[in-house]
Design a protein that fits this description.
single chain, 307 residues, alpha/beta, nine-stranded mixed β-sheet, 11 strands
Length: 307
């Protein structure tokens, strides 16, 4: 498995380098930013209102460029609210990329209404959400990357500003926070410390996770073998290589829980089994369920004793 990930990393890194080179040529040759630029086969990149960090190294640490990637396919009822939650952010040093899977329901018309707010948008067939997310990563130039897919939205208009202001440790590679579940009163609060065993049952909501862009070059992209839990597999893989996490006690996003995973429970169960077989030893698979149950009962007891 590690060799396969390094191979994917090499290919993606090479593609990203070529894209940057071609983009530099395009900007040099033309002052216009409102036309399509064809790259590699049928893919079309629409380089529009690009916003890159133009501050020096010291200032860029205080105001890093954040790449926000929205993946969408045939979601004309939800894409507008998602885009609005991005463009309304008080933090302005962003690069906004939309990756559309070849929508036929009017979604593209809505995207085009926001062309002056987008840095790039792509519309083409893909092999699933994580393939589209990988495409977004390859297009990103930011110091940080976050995925906010159609149907999801930022919890508040100042989320990005608050996250940036709270991050003072520049060795951190992943910043994560809380998630509100759309149309419910539920809030997901992850643990303040992340270990391998956490991913035996659970994961972080990727809509509430900021990734340093360089981690995808170091640890590889999302494994397309997993159609539902590729984000969980990536986080587990990176955790086992000692990636550095930082928790912020903020509501980052409002997550739309309805979607592909909720409609494909049998595949979700199958992928869970595959992940545990691939990353956890027999001893871990036997012991961890009991450890998790014990910890859950202990937390309940602590809550009862606190009254």
């Amino acid at each position: 498995m590690p060799n396969r990930h390094r191979s994917v990393e090499d290919v993606r890194s090479f593609n990203c380098t070529i894209r940057k080179f071609l983009e530099t040529i395009r900007v040099t040759l033309s002052a216009s930013s409102s036309f399509s630029f064809a790259i590699a086969g049928n893919q079309k990149i629409m380089p529009l209102n690009r916003r890159y960090s133009c501050v020096n190294d010291g200032e860029s640490r205080l105001q890093p460029l954040i790449s926000i990637i929205t993946v969408v396919c045939n979601a004309n009822e939800t894409i507008n609210d998602t885009i609005q939650s991005v463009v309304n952010q008080s933090y302005k040093n962003i690069e906004y990329i939309v990756v559309d899977g070849g929508s036929k329901d009017g979604t593209i018309d809505i995207i085009q209404r926001y062309e002056n707010k987008l840095s790039n948008w792509v519309s083409e067939k893909d092999s699933g959400i994580y393939d589209a997310m990988n495409k977004g990563i390859a297009l990103a130039h930011g110091n940080w990357v976050i995925f906010l897919n159609s149907g999801d939205s930022f919890a508040n208009d100042d989320v990005l500003e608050r996250v940036v202001s709270e991050n003072r440790d520049h060795s951190v590679q992943i910043i994560y926070g809380n998630t509100r579940v759309k149309d419910t009163n539920n809030s997901l609060r992850p643990p303040k410390s992340i270990h391998k065993r956490f991913f035996f049952y659970e994961t972080l909501c990727h809509q509430s996770v900021f990734f340093k862009r360089e981690v995808f070059e170091k640890y590889g992209y999302f494994d397309l073998k997993y159609k539902i839990i590729a984000d969980r597999e990536w986080l587990l893989r990176a955790t086992m290589q000692n990636i550095r996490y930082s928790y912020v006690d903020l509501d980052i996003c409002i997550w739309d829980a309805a979607g592909y995973s909720s409609d494909n429970i049998s595949l979700y169960v199958k992928e869970n089994i595959d992940l545990r077989m691939s990353y956890f030893s027999l001893v871990e698979r036997l012991i961890l369920p009991w450890v998790m149950r014990y910890n859950k009962l202990r937390r309940k007891a602590e809550i009862l004793l606190s009254y």
